[in-house]
Each structure stands twice: as C-alpha cells, then as structure tokens.
C-alpha cells in the first residue's frame, strides 16, 4: 500500500527527492548535523509496534524506533516526523537514530489513568475535522477538536461530510451556520464524495502542506482520504444506520502524497477527544467569550453572578448562547485538571481556589444559621 503512494520527484525536475513529502531548506538546515554522520533524512509514513516505515531518497525503508524511544510519550516517533535513519549499507535492522524538532504536533490526552499525552500527527499545517451529516451534529465535540487543532499550531477546517444526505439547500445552509457559530475563524465546508460537492475547494485549501484527517468512526475519513489521494488506499466500511458509527476502518496513522501537492495523514476514528494542555486552543475556539471577558468589571470574573459581568450580560441580551459559556467552562475545567496532574503550580492554584470557594460556602451557611439572610 505504501509503495504505491511513494512518489518522490525525479532528480531531473531540479527538486529534492523528498520535496513531495514536504522537505524544504529549513528541514535541510536542521538535518545538517546528521548528514555529517552519514545518516539519511526521511519522513515517517507509518508507525507500528516499535517499527516505522520511512520515505527516504533510497525509497521506502523499514526502521526500528527503539534507539530513540523516550520515557515521555509525547516524544515517541510519530507519523509525520522527519527522521535521521541508517543508510542501506548499515545492515539489518536499520534504526531511526533521531527525529528533527517538530514544528507542530497534534496531541490529546489518552484514556489511560496515567494521564499521558499522545501525539496523533507531527509537523501538520492543516487539521481537517471531519463531521458526518448522517447523524445529529455534536457541537461540543466539534469545539473539542477545534481546541486541540488550534493548540497544535495547525489551521483547522471543518468538513461536513456526506452532504448529499441533506438534499435541501436551505437545511444544509442552516447546518453550516450552526457549526460556524462554534468555529470562529474556521472554514466550514460541506463535502460529498458521492456528488463531488466541495472537493475542489478542499483540495485547494490543503494543497502544498501536511494535512491530518480527524474525526470519530463513521465520519467518512477513509472515503475522503481515498478521494483526495485518488486511489483506494483505505478500506471503507458502511456506518451503522442506527447511530452512524463506523468500525474503525483505519487502524494506524498513515501518510500519503497528494496528487495536487502536499501530504495527507489519515487517522483512526477517535472515541475520546481529551484535551492536553490546550488552554490557548480553548481560548481561540471561544474567542468571543474571552473578548467579552475583557469588559467585565472584575479581572477574575467567573461569569456567574458577579455585577458588571459582560459575558452574562451578552447571554441575557441574546448575543451569546448560554450553551457556549457552559461548554467553555467545561473545557477550561477539564484542561486545568489535566495540567494540574503534571504541574505543581497549577495544582497549588486549584487548591487555593477550592479553599476559597469552600470558605465562601461555609460563610454563607453561617449567615443563614444566624438569620442574617432571609
């Protein structure tokens, strides 16, 4: 499968053989110390159980990752990484000796009780969040994906797949508007791989960079990947009619060269979308709330019952949906809990906040007992 998508440019066209994979002068400069050691540059196109496939100037090679396996799960070799690998004459097995510093990384928290982070894709320019129109929109999940995308450093795009299942143009436009309300500064694009709607716009949007496809099972990522690459690279299974969920057609993260330029990383359907140190990303998703908060009377306003709160005033006036504030609070709390597990300073701040809230509650109860509150 990967050999079919390995498309290095020819030497005669004047480009570096790895240019189709995103190689540029900056990567070449970062690689110079390893070139002096006789190592080869390459881009990781798949990782599987301590082994990885790497696209190099010598072709697609299999390399062992154990030499650079760190204790930090956020630094393990990942699809999209640029690596320094042993040359052909190094013998077998060949090893990944180092990975170049990442420009961006799409990370989430795992479902493990150890509260570890997991990098889904490295050196990504575009994050395409795929949402199926075959089921009811989950705006909260879209906000989660967007927070992680903004935090990664990539430019997010929301693709509403299976748009042909909504034949009413007016109804489709309403769905697009609903998503746009939770995705400020993000392109929302209805797409159909059946009719071709929106595909040319999407292809133009992601051309020339590295794109990661994200979404839950059944969102249509594999079908979209096949369409964009122009080959049947991924097996497609029908989603269940009852809930639109798929069966994890994609089981590994795979990188493919796009015929129009750039590369595509397809990912397995995500059951959980846990935040991982994504405070900046959350702020970007809820930029209208953070902008309103700047006009609150108190700089530490909790946007609850404080006087002079610009956020609650906007909700009362109908300018801000109450659901947005609740979602914002939920993601902020979740992100702080994740960060607090690895950051002593944040744990201390949260403990002080809990004590302050507890003291306020006890004082209120005391006033009630004394009959001072009627």
Layout of helices and strands:
Layout: H1 2-5, H2 25-35, E1 40-48, E2 51-56, E3 59-64, E4 82-85, E5 96-99, E6 105-109, E7 117-122, E8 126-132, H3 139-152, E9 155-161, H4 169-181, E10 187-190, H5 199-206, E11 210-214, H6 221-229, E12 254-257, E13 263-266, H7 279-285, H8 287-293, H9 310-316, H10 322-340, H11 344-369
Parallel strand pairs: 8-9, 8-11, 9-10, 11-13
Antiparallel strand pairs: 1-2, 1-4, 2-3, 4-5, 6-7, 12-13
Short description:
By secondary structure, the chain is an alpha/beta fold.
- Characterize the overall form: globular
Strand content: 15-25%
Within the largest sheet, what's the order of strands? 10-9-8-11-13-12
DSSP strand count: 13
What is the end-to-end distance?
A: 74 Å
Enumerate the spans where pLDDT stays under 50 for 5 or more consecutive residues: 237-248, 343-347, 349-355, 357-362
Q: What name is given to the CATH topology of the largest domain?
A: Rossmann fold
- Average pLDDT score: 83
CATH homologous superfamily classification of the largest domain: P-loop containing nucleotide triphosphate hydrolases
Give the proportion of residues in helices.
25-40%
Rounded radius of gyration (Å): 24 Å
Helix and strand sequence: HHEEEEEEEEHEHEHEHEEHHHHH
| CATH architecture identity of the largest domain | 3-Layer(aba) Sandwich
**How many DSSP H or I helices?**
11
